[in-house]
Amino acid sequence: MLIELKSTQALLGQGTSAVSKCTACFAQCATRRRPFLPDKSQHKTQQFFRHRTNKCLHGPIAQAAAVHSPQSLSELDRILCSSEPDAEAKALDLINKLKEDGVVKAYGGAQQIPKRLYTLEELRLNNLRPEEFLSPEDSTLNTVRTILQAGGLAGVTAIFFAFHLTVSQALGLVVAVMFVVVGDQVGNNGGIEGLVVDTAGRYLNKTYAQRIALHEAGHFLIAYLVGLLPKVYTLSTLDAVQRYGKFNIQAGTQFCDKSFSEEIAKGQISSTSLDRYTCVALAGVSAEYLKFGRAEGGLGDVQQLDALLRAIGFTQKKTDGQIRWAVLNVSSLLRRHSKTHEKLAHAMAEGSSVAACIGVIEGDMQDSADI
Questions:
Q1: Which pLDDT score is estimated for 189?
Q2: Cβ proximity of 285 and 130 under 8 Å
Q3: How many CA atoms lie within 13 A of 95 on its CB side?
Q4: Sign, CA torsion 347/285/120/139
Q5: Which residues fall within 8 angstroms of residue 25, CB to CB, at 6 or more apart?
Q6: 74 lies in a domain?
């Protein structure tokens, strides 16, 4: 079944940024917007984990994962790391061939819950509180920002007294700092600020790193299980800057999603593709919620998905139904594979390649009757 777009231009025009982010990288943003479900909540934001970026070369963790990883997955890494224009198509051909040959089992093999309209009460019976689930608040980074602002003010004050500045000189210093901040917001969409806050966050809060690793591992695992091949991931703003050479690109996970882009270009999105992307978008929030009882990151994921559903003309009732099903489905998969999720988060934190991460998943599920 194909979902006709209410207005292709609405999706490809004013909705372009939201859709492109959904199809390329479920990254985060700091704007606020109401969640999908009727419960009145507002909120919030996310950043990412500081660690070295995953490399195309195999390190110690990659070698350890290779115990459960078919040799063919090394070729997958080579393809994903190449700059060939048809690299994505080749990667998909290879993973599908490995699936057909029985070399990989878990890719696209998730046993998902039935697709129907679920009620809020059914979510609560499964220990899912939608008013908290879809309203992540990044209290960690909010605290870090406050600390940095206080530190900056203290620094300016110290300079004022140490160098015996005049009032006009002190004001000039403040104006210069404000000029840099505003320039960053305009030129880099706050990228430099995000880099500083994200890097400081992992030094000031020890659980921040773990939370982000689990969040991105949630995206990676659910995507793989529902048949969306991960292409590359970064777990911190610094990693993203080093990889892409830009300050306005945040960390996250990207996928081989050319077919989804083609569906958008044609003005039609299949229900299968929409279900898949809805699940992947909510996987990070779900992972945090199930592990910590609340989510701090993922507001950007929720907002981007909201924008996509609005662009294709979903009513509020239809949006609620889509989101509730995805929340239950993703939570069910993450609970079922909680140990695999934790192992994957560790492998990603160690900088393992995409193929090595896939090896972790497949190694855990080769003998599993319930994927």
A1: 67
A2: no
A3: 28
A4: positive
A5: 249, 250, 252, 253, 254
A6: no
**Cα–Cα separations (whole angstroms), residue 147 to 111, 172, 173:** 45, 23, 20
Q: E strands along the chain, which residues?
A: 2-4, 230-234, 252-255, 268-270
Domain co-membership, 120 together with 257 = yes
| Single-letter amino acid, residue 54 | N
pLDDT of 273-301, one tens digit each?
999 999 999 999 999 999 998 888 888 89
Residue type at position 344: L
| Total structural domains within the chain | 2
Do 152 and 36 fall within a single domain? no
Same domain, 109 and 123: yes
Distances (CA, A) of 250 to 144, 158, 239, 321, 337: 18, 33, 9, 30, 28
CA atoms within 13 A on the CB side of 189: 9
Among 158, 176, 202, the domain-final residue is 202
pLDDT of residue 113: 96
The pLDDT tens digits of the residues spanning 350-368 come to 999 999 999 999 999 987 8
Residue 95 lies in a domain: no
Give the C-alpha separation, 121 to 112, whole Å: 20
Asked if residue 229 belongs to a domain, the reply is yes
Q: Are residues 147 and 283 in the same domain?
A: no
Q: How far apart, in whole angstroms, are the C-alpha atoms of residue 129 and residue 50?
A: 29
In our burial notation (b when 16+ CB lie closer than 10 A, e otherwise), range 235-253 reads bbbbbbbeeeeebebbbbb
Which domain does 334 fall in, by range? 2-55+101-138+208-365
| pTM score over 0.85 | no
* 349 and 230 co-located in one domain: yes
**Same domain, yes or no, for 188 and 327?**
no
pLDDT at 43: 34
